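Researcher: Please translate sequence to structure tokens.
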Amino acid sequence: MFFIFTNSKNVYSLERKEILFISSYNPNFISFNDQINGIVESLGEDINLRTEYMDSKRIDNESNERDFYNLLKYNISTYEKYDSIIVGDDEALEFVIKYRDDIFKDIPIVFLGVEDTKLIQDSLKYNLVSGVRESESLDANIELIAKLHKNVKNIYIIS
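Model: Translation complete:
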């Protein structure tokens, strides 16, 4: 099940778009390639997709977060002009919203894979922020298990 949230304006252009994708995972995470492939498929070939990895296992303290912040701030202010920023999870969205008015001001932000409802609501208070939240359907999964395994008496779900 998908939920689409938006409060941003449509932006159209014939020029190649510069897109920054921020993920709190590293590139070896199981769904990372799926996210990248989905972004490229959705946006087409007229994009230049740059990826920055927060790697939340590394960025677990203020010093590492400050280093990542300084890297992005330097790159954006010195070299890069992004048409949009895509964030791939809760931690990345928290980071981008935390520094929204500082280094990401006036850049449209799109989130995907965010589960925290409060974070989504807080993020949508900002201009040019929109996104998609995918919700797991436990009921549908339980129905499928019961249909495929008719003799099952107990179903344990571990998350």
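Researcher: Any highlights?
Model: The beta strands are 2-6, 17-23, 47-53, 84-87, 109-112, 129-134.
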